[in-house]
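During the no-cost extension, the postdoctoral fellow (Dr. R.K.) reprocessed legacy sequence entries with the updated structure-token encoder. One reprocessed record is reproduced below for audit purposes.
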Amino acid sequence: MSIHFESKFRSSYCGKLNKDNIGQTVTVAGWVRRRRDHGGLIFIDLADYTGILQLVVSPENNEIFKLFETLRSEFVISVAGIISERPAGTINSNMNSGEIELNVTEGQLISKSEPLPFVIEEAKDTKEELRLKYRFLDLRRDEMQNMLRTRHAIYKATRSYLDNLDFCEVETPILSKPTPEGARDFLVPSRMQHASFYALPQSPQLYKQVLMCSSLDKYYQIVKCFRDEDFRANRQPEFTQIDIEMSFVEESQIQTMVEGLIRKIWSTAKGVELETSFPRMDYDEVMLKYGVDAPDLRFELLIQDVSEIFKNIQSDRIQEVLGTGGVVRGILVPDGSAFSRSKLDGYTEFVSQYGAKGLAWFKLEDGQLKGPLAKFFAPDVHSECIAAFGLEEGHIFMCVAGQVEMVCSAMANLRLQLAKDLELIDPSKLEFLWVESFPLLDFDARENRYVAVHHPFTSPKVDELSLLKDEPLKVKARAYDLVLNGQEIGGGSIRIHDQILQQKMFQLLGIEEEEAKQKFGFLLDALSFGAPPHGGIALGVDRIAMILSGCDSIRDVIAFPKTQRGADIMVGAPSKANLEQLLDLGIRVISDKPA
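Re-encoded structure tokens follow.
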């Protein structure tokens, strides 16, 4: 059913009128984008959210002509007139209304605009801070309007898809309790219970697990989450996620359901039909081939481990690296032998940012192995090296030696930089990947304890439970991330549904029984009253919208984002609280942070 809201201000929208409306009398309203005086005629580009319509008024209509002479950019007007065909040679094929214009017969000025801090059409090239200060002007751009409507399409597709699968949308609390990773929580003081604090949720994780214990079976929520951490282009202190949880499921069922949701989102928002299923790869293989757990698959440049061949090198430093558990890994670059020496030196400087002490490179030139380290290989193993590196004439092999974590970081970033420099990335390409079988735990040497790679509620693989006691770092998690074009857009896992196993996990993480009861008692209670196997995922709406819109920054797809310093400079947040508020909350502010 279609409902048309007609008012005295408008009967039609600017961008929805076309040559089919020629001869009709219409009323439109919007913002004056441009005014042009040509040979006694005044032309105005009038904009609303649907697009632009050209208005024209002649001096014969004296009263309206005088009004049009006073109009400036972003004045708001409502006008009526007759739709006519544009004269030959003035058609604008880039607009839906580009073949027509409105000959104005009546009009009114609704509101005026102050002089603009920037030109709306040129806002993309304006300093971001100025755009954010006047975000209400920035959002008038077609590009920004389209981004907000892309988000709307994501929400619409999500609700439609999940509702059809009998999911139930449930709102979980925003005021919750601090998490174990409390340093990242935003705290909210309680007025009624002095010295006590709520925390804004980093995730509805525990609430949705309790919902599964409540026999809800299938839950979802489009929810705001909060994390107090340093900002990057793809992060904000408050972000939106599609939060999902299901009972009596295994990994493959959740992944299949999510693939259907992603296909629905892309179809609704972009009109693009995606492949029926996404490839899957184990974490260990991903880290070996790409050096990072969220790889960009739009180009090759795979990382290779050549540690075995480097055992033959006569270099004390390399032998020391290999002797202490280090590795040598590299990338074969087709057509890379044309790199100048200064270019190669630049790549050496580049990998040093990630801890690499050098960048070795080899190339095949006139059938001979050439490169800074070639002389350290005995001549009788050169052919073995050429085969191991995969060298052909015109290729170059670039590698780094060191401990695994550093080498992965250096090579992953080098791989991406090479792809940019060689223009190997097709921005129109979509490459999804499920990364599975993450490590369950990592060891934090600074805190001298185990930490959960995902979170403490992720289930270990059943066939590896026996390793938990003596070799916990070998245990894999029933966790999975969804990656698109080098961005993690979702992450989830099968959860621990057994109370005893959950308590063991807490103990392994150094959370003693009393602390576990204090922090997670409600979850342990819920697990003790008959908990189903369950699992879920959270998909990042902001990142999905960023990729759908072709943006480089997540701030561009959020209506009112924060700056790199966490400020909303349009409203002036965060701001200081007055003394009366602080006293009411029982809070004293220390003006200087301790060193």
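The two ends are 64 Å apart (CA to CA). Residues 439-476+498-530 form one domain. The remaining legacy entries will be reprocessed before the final report is submitted.
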